[in-house]
Amino acid sequence: AAALAGAPPGAREVAGPGFRDFTRIAHSDPELWADIFHANHKALAAPLQAARSAFEALCSAIEAGDANAVLRWLESARRALYPAPSGGSAGEARATSGTPVRDGPTPKEIDRAHE
After folding, report:
1. How far apart are alpha carbons 90 and 74 in whole angstroms?
2. What would the pLDDT profile of 39-74 be if each residue is shown by its tens digit?
3. Partners of 100 in beta bridges
4. pLDDT reported for residue 93
């Protein structure tokens, strides 16, 4: 949340509920969260370093204008959260008939729709 302090005026007005959910800890009691982070510092260190590395890779791809690298980064994040079922690809579920059912458009389809 602090990194977003320099956002343009009016940015908060257009932020959706995902932004509120994403930043809700910033609205909470700092002492409580400081205690939680301190009590869990050994468990948090490695995941925070991994998140930093992942965001550095995304930032580099965005700065370089490398749309393919951004796409790969997003696909990797999606696969990490939603592993593909057996015999399918990420983002697909199997209907009872065995036919793949997608959960939404692919990033390429979204890009094409905006061209």
Report:
1. 11
2. 999 999 999 999 999 999 999 999 999 999 999 999
3. 94
4. 46
- Please give the angle made by the CA atoms of 89, 57 and 90, to the nearest 5 degrees: 5
Q: 72 burial class (0-12, 13-18, 19+ CB within 10 angstroms)?
A: middle
Look up residue 71 and give its two tokens.
Answer: 């796409």
- The amino acid that residue 112 corresponds to is R
Helices (H) and strands (E) in the chain, counts: 6, 2
Kindly give, in sequence order, each residue whose CB lies less than 8 Å from that of residue 71, ignoring residues fewer than 6 positions away. 107, 108
Of 85, 86, 90, nearest in space to 74 by CA: 90
pLDDT digits (tens, 9 = 90+) for 98-109: 444 445 555 555
